[in-house]
Specification:
The structure holds two protein chains of two kinds. Chain A is mainly α. Chain A contains nine helices and no strands. In chain A, helix 5 runs antiparallel to helix 6. Chain B is built from no helices and nine strands. The radius of gyration of chain B is 12 Å and the shape is globular. The chains are: A mainly alpha, B mainly beta. At the A-B interface, helix 2, helix 5 and helix 7 of A face strand 6 and strand 7 of B.
C-alpha cells in the first residue's frame, strides 16, 4: 500500500501545487475560479483517453510516441506557465486579460491533469489483474491523492493569506516548476536518442538523494534532478533567466508609472 | 548519421527483470530493448539513469542510455517495486 501512496503522491503533488498557485493568482487578479472544476473534469477525461491509447501512442514514430507526447505536453506546460507569469508581471495587463488568463489556466490544468492522471490510471489498471493487490493499491492511491490535495490546499490558504508576498512565492515556485518541466521534457528526447545524451554535470545524490522523500518533494517543487546533463542545466537555467529578466523589466516599467 | 548503439535486451516476466544484472562497457551509448511479457503495464524507472517509461503489457520499448561512467546504476519497475529490481554495471 505504501508503494501506491508514494506513486500517486508523486503524480498528484505537482498538479495540486500548480492548481493551488493558479488559485492564488485567481484571487489576486479577480479571475473567476469556476473554471477550475471544468478544467479538472476535462483533464480527468483526457487522462482516461491517454491511458487507454498509450500502448498505441508509444508505438508511433518508431517507438518514440510516448516520449514525444510527454515532451510536447511538458514543454507546452512550461511555456504556458511562463506566459501566465509574463501577463501577471506586466502592469495594467491583468485586468484587460482576465478572460485570457482564465483560458490559459484552463489549458494548464487540463494538460497537467492528463499526464499525471494517465499514469495513476495505468498504475491502477496494472494492479487489477493481481489478486489482493487492487484494493490495497486503491486505498493507497486515495491516501496519496488525499495527501497531495491537502498539501495543495495548505499552500493555497497559506499563500493567499499573506498578500503580495504570497503572490511572489507562487510566482517563484511556478517559474521553478516550469523550468523543471522543461528540463524533464529534454530528458525524454534523450531517452529516445533525438538529443545526444552526455555525462551528468554533477551528482548531488550525496546531498539529497532522488530516492528520498525530500528528493521527491523537491522534484515536484523545483524539478530537482541529482544527476542532470549539460543540456538539462542550460534549459533549466534559461527558463529561470527569462522570467528574471522579465521581472526586472516589469519593475522598471512600474517605477516609470509611479 | 548516428553510430549504431550497443543493443541489450531485457524481459519483464512475472514482474521480474530478466536478466536483472547487466554488465555494459563504460563510456558507451546503449539501446535497451525491454520486452514486457506480462499482461499488465510496468513503468521502467531509474533515478540514476534519468529514465522513465511506461511499457504496456505484451509490448516492447526502446530506451537509450549512456554514455555511463564506471559504476552501478539501479533500475526498477515502479508498479512492482518489491520484485522488479535490476542493476546495470558499467565497467
Amino acid at each position: 500500500m505504501l508503494d501506491a501512496v508514494i506513486i500517486v503522491l508523486r503524480e498528484t503533488l505537482e498538479v495540486s501545487l500548480i492548481v493551488a498557485f493558479l488559485f492564488v493568482y485567481s484571487n489576486h487578479f479577480s479571475v473567476n475560479k469556476k473554471w477550475m472544476f471544468s478544467a479538472l473534469s476535462v483533464g480527468i477525461l483526457s487522462a482516461v483517453i491517454v491511458s487507454s491509447q498509450l500502448p498505441d501512442i508509444s508505438d508511433f514514430f518508431d517507438g518514440r510516441g510516448q516520449e514525444l507526447l510527454f515532451f510536447g505536453v511538458l514543454i507546452s506546460l512550461s511555456i504556458l506557465i511562463q506566459f501566465v507569469n509574463f501577463i501577471i508581471l506586466i502592469p495594467n495587463q491583468v485586468k484587460s486579460s482576465a478572460s485570457f488568463l482564465r483560458g490559459l489556466f484552463f489549458i494548464i490544468i487540463v494538460l497537467a491533469t492528463s499526464l499525471e492522471g494517465a499514469e495513476i490510471i495505468i498504475f491502477l489498471q496494472s494492479s487489477l489483474s493481481v489478486e489482493n493487490k487492487f484494493y490495497s493499491h486503491l486505498m493507497g492511491s486515495f491516501l496519496g491523492l488525499g495527501i497531495g490535495v491537502s498539501v495543495g490546499a495548505v499552500a493555497y490558504y497559506l499563500f493567499s493569506q499573506i498578500g503580495r508576498v504570497g503572490l511572489i512565492v507562487c510566482l517563484v515556485f511556478l517559474v521553478m516548476i516550469s523550468a523543471g518541466m522543461a528540463s524533464q521534457a529534454i530528458s525524454y528526447l534523450m531517452q529516445v536518442d533525438l538529443i545526444e545524451s552526455s555525462y551528468p554535470v554533477w551528482n548531488s545524490n550525496w546531498l539529497v538523494s532522488e530516492h528520498s522523500v525530500i528528493g521527491q518533494l523537491l522534484y515536484a517543487l523545483i524539478g530537482y534532478e541529482a544527476t542532470p546533463t549539460l543540456v538539462q542545466v542550460v534549459v533549466y537555467g534559461g527558463f529561470l533567466f527569462f522570467p528574471m529578466m522579465l521581472t526586472l523589466y516589469a519593475m522598471k516599467i512600474d517605477r516609470r508609472n509611479l | 548519421m548516428k553510430a549504431e548503439r550497443l543493443t541489450i535486451e531485457i524481459e519483464i516476466k512475472n514482474h521480474l527483470f530478466i536478466p536483472d544484472k547487466i554488465e555494459v562497457p563504460a563510456d558507451t551509448k546503449i539501446k535497451l530493448v525491454i520486452y514486457n511479457r506480462d499482461p499488465t503495464s510496468e513503468e521502467f524507472e531509474s533515478y540514476e539513469l534519468n529514465r522513465e517509461k511506461v511499457i504496456s503489457g505484451n509490448r516492447k520499448a526502446n530506451i537509450f542510455i549512456g554514455p555511463l561512467a564506471v559504476g552501478e546504476y539501479p533500475f526498477f519497475g515502479e508498479f512492482n517495486q518489491k520484485t522488479a529490481q535490476g542493476l546495470i554495471i558499467a565497467k
